[in-house]
Write a structure and sequence with these properties.
single chain, 394 residues, globular
Amino acid sequence: MNNPLPQVLWPLMFGNVVIGTGVMMAIGTLAEISTSLDVSVATTGQLISTSALFTCIGAPVFAAWLAGWDRKKLLTASLFWYAALHALAAMSEQFSTLLIWRALAMAGAAIYTPQAASCIGLLVPAHQRSRAITFIFLGWSVASVIGTPLGAWLGGTVGWRYAFALISVSSLCSALWLWRSLPSGIVPVALSRTAWWTTFSSPTLMFTVCVTMVSGAGQFVLFSYLAPYLKIHLGVTAAGLGLLLLLYGAAGFAGNMFIARYIDRIGASQSVMLSLGLMVLGLGVWSLGNSVGWIIVALIPWGLGVFATNSAQQARLLQLSPSLASASIALNSSAIYAGQAIGAAVGGWLILEQGMTSLPWFSTLGLILSMGVSWQASRYAISHPLPREPQVDG
């Protein structure tokens, strides 16, 4: 029987609930922001692409720059920053101002998610690390179940500003809980420049990270514009959008729980392929029909795979090279946001050139491509060995 995980992982997981809700909040409120600030849907999509690009660049930069910080101070500070900048975003009167505050707020996300994962090696024994990583990333599934639908409902009923204010308050509460729970002195081993170069020059790790980027880009072609798509083409109300996101999130939670429980038995790379296959199935179903019934059927397999893929990818990188996990997981977090930025940008271009109904088809193609990249990454894992010993500064 599996030994219970340490209680300190709960506030780390809740931090990802807050971060994940904040990252996806713009998706649920996109239509309301577009109307409120009098900008087009394609322009409003820059909230997703710009913020994601900032986070993509920031994750590895912060990982290298802040390597020597006590993680209690670093993670708490990142959540306080997230709270303050979302409060400013909630008070924005112009889209340009909102865009700036939202992008700067993502510094908190760029720091928190990869650095929370980097703590695992110092908080749990080696045999529990895959479970521990999938557990703290369960926070993103919880965000999808609770936070994103709630944000969509708030944005559609009382206004998007209240949704952003909710993130600010939640982030503040998360920071206080983490400060009280996480012990001081958690400072993972800092990687040397040689270790970073080894990570960047490893075909195995880079192909694996590319799986995250390509799969994220594929799904965010559609997911970025989910709210306006459903509102414009199917007449879905704010309450209906919240219920559909709740279904999607519940499926995501279930899929992540399954992977967290069985990843050691299935294997990390096989878990990634299974999860990507479910996403292809869901988006393929969406592409074949354009009714609420079709959407409901599509959201279940799509949700089952979405967060399970990210969790399995983290475990996959950790297994490939534990000594380089701090670098590879930071790069994987960058890849998540790079995928979001690419997907949102491509989706905005497709809306202008071909209309919203083209989005599901291109999302499906992107996910199929990611399965091919994942297969290639597995081949490289066999033919290109990776270092097993830590490469530290000094």
